[in-house]
């Protein structure tokens, strides 16, 4: 028996070792998997934001298994943080591409992994047709991201109904022509006696370009954004933009622009508008919910931007597929769990019902946009209708020839945001009188932009890519209609 004791102790030791090992594995397998999400979008900001509420619901559902932490940072802070994370090879599991880049850049740098294995065709079918496109968010047949929002108007005429009423104007009858806008702005300014003005904008940021391009869309929609896809050329010196700038100059001469507008940020302009310091504000879709958030008591109306005669519709354009978006890090160890969060929460009806209820924007799910029970306030119904009436799908060079995406990456964006001074800064200098010749100044800017595009095409061609300037030209584009897959076929080269 004594001889058997050492053997028994040895067997017991082995048993204890394996038991302990199994116990450790059980503990490890029972630990929550942490998923980190980084972004600069306001839908992550605050515990009551649609993003954070979606995270809270997801964490409850998977308590003890998966926990998501979504970190919001303002744009400049976010860009610095994510660039540092890229440099240190410590990316979060799911992140938005930093400014100056897009999904294609993230894929080219090997920083993103496809999400196809985590989502289904049924999931994709919830989005607007064309939301997933080769060369934009699908690269070499693999899906890397999804559009965060639906169509987004870049210019809306917001009018403060209380200000109009105090000036003796009909608070439910916004101006439809440029002359009517000038007259109403003058009436408001005269009645305001140095305290209230007709117009306000965020001149320190993009307020001037938003204003000018918004009114230019009522003259020639194809040229309003600065690039004309019908000709494949920039159009910053077009008659539409020059006429729109002339209107802005006339409003200045009339004395109806709030004097601080030239140094205001867009958020500050929205607050002053909401507080009744100005009757009119031309800004993008985000200004509605941000102003309502910052000045809840504001009574505002929304309308199309006025046209010269009142007969032209200010058509604006979008492409369903988005070149910017959230991507799964190629370094994540928890891709399956990240995919589950995308499929069941972040890119699902669960999130977008909260999103539309917060009035952030029109969602990329058409069915949800029609649910009026989700609308947070009456103005939102007008907001949705304006998007429906004024937005059309434009052609996209990367859809017809995915290699065009490489040119866009070379430029940073088609707007060439690295070119200084930019369009808004030029408008600022012209409006304040620092520069006198609007036509000459914008012509030189336009020439610089066209040269930038030509140089980028040349650089990409020198790398062996099959691309040429015609890939940015769509002569069959009808500005009044959506550009369809069939339209691409009409201009596709052999």
Secondary-structure topology with pairs:
Elements: H1 4-30, E1 33-39, H2 50-61, E2 66-72, H3 75-88, E3 94-96, H4 103-108, E4 112-113, H5 121-124, E5 138-139, E6 142-143, E7 156-160, H6 161-166, H7 178-192, E8 197-200, H8 207-216, E9 227-228, E10 233-234, H9 239-254, H10 266-274, E11 278-283, H11 286-294, E12 300-303, E13 316-318, E14 326-329, H12 335-346, H13 349-357, H14 366-369, H15 379-390, E15 391-393, H16 397-400, H17 404-411, H18 423-432, H19 438-462, H20 485-491
Helix pairs in contact: 2-12, 2-13, 7-9, 8-9, 8-18, 10-11, 17-19, 18-19
Protein name: Extracellular solute-binding protein
Pfam families: SBP_bac_1
Organism: Paenibacillus allorhizosphaerae
Please summarize what this structure is.
The protein has 494 residues and is of the alpha/beta class.
Largest sheet: 5 strands, mixed
Helix % is 40-55%
* Corresponding CATH architecture of the largest domain: 3-Layer(aba) Sandwich
Biggest sheet: strands side by side, in what order? 2-1-3-14-4
Number of separate domains: 3
Question: What is the C-level CATH assignment of the largest domain?
Answer: Alpha Beta
Task: List how many beta strands DSSP finds.
Answer: 15
- What global shape is seen? globular
Number of helices: 20
Pfam family, one: SBP_bac_1
Keywords: Signal
Signal peptide: 1-23
Organism: Paenibacillus allorhizosphaerae
């Amino acid at each position: 028996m004594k001889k058997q004791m050492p053997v028994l102790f040895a067997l017991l030791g082995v048993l204890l070792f394996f038991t302990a090992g199994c116990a450790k594995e059980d503990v490890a397998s029972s630990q929550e998997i942490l998923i980190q999400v980084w972004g600069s979008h306001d839908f992550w900001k605050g515990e009551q934001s649609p993003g954070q509420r979606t995270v809270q619901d997801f964490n409850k559902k998977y308590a003890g298994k998966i926990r998501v932490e979504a970190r919001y940072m303002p744009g400049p802070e976010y860009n610095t943080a994510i660039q540092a994370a890229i440099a240190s090879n410590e990316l979060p599991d799911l992140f938005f591409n930093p400014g100056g880049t897009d999904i294609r850049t993230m894929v080219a740098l090997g920083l993103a992994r496809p999400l196809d294995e985590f989502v289904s065709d049924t999931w994709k079918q919830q989005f607007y047709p064309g939301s997933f496109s080769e060369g934009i968010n699908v690269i070499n047949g693999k899906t890397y991201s999804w559009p965060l929002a639906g169509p987004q108007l870049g210019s809306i005429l917001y009018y403060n109904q209380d200000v109009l009423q105090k000036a003796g104007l009909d608070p439910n009858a916004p101006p439809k022509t440029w002359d009517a806008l000038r007259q109403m702005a003058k009436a408001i300014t005269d009645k305001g006696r140095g305290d209230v003005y007709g117009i306000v904008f965020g001149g320190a940021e993009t307020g001037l370009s938003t204003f000018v391009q918004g009114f230019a869309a009522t003259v020639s929609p194809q040229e309003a954004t600065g690039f004309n896809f019908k000709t494949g050329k920039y159009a910053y010196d077009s008659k539409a933009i020059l006429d729109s700038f002339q209107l802005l100059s006339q409003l200045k001469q009339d004395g109806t622009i709030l004097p601080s507008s030239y140094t205001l940020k867009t958020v500050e302009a929205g607050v002053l508008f909401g507080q009744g310091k100005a009757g009119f504000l031309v800004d993008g879709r985000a200004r509605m919910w941000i102003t309502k958030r910052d000045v809840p008591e504001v009574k505002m109306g929304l309308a199309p931007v006025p046209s010269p005669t009142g007969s032209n519709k200010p058509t604006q354009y979008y492409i369903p597929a988005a070149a910017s978006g959230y991507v799964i890090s190629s370094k994540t160890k928890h891709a399956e769990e990240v995919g589950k969060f995308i499929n069941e929460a972040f890119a699902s009806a669960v999130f977008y019902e909260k999103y539309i209820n917060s009035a952030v924007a029109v969602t990329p799910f058409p069915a949800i946009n029609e649910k009026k029970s989700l609308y947070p306030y009456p103005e939102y119904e007008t907001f949705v209708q304006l998007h429906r009436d004024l937005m059309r799908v434009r052609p996209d060079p990367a859809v017809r020839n995915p290699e065009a995406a490489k040119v866009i990456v070379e430029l940073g964006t088609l707007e060439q945001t690295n070119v200084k001074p930019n369009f808004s800064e030029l408008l600022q200098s012209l409006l304040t009188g620092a520069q006198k010749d609007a036509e000459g100044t914008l012509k030189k800017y336009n020439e610089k932009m066209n040269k930038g595009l030509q140089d980028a095409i040349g650089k990409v061609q020198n790398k062996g890519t099959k691309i040429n300037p015609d890939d940015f030209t769509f002569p069959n584009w009808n500005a009044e209609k959506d550009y369809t897959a069939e339209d691409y076929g009409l201009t596709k080269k052999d």
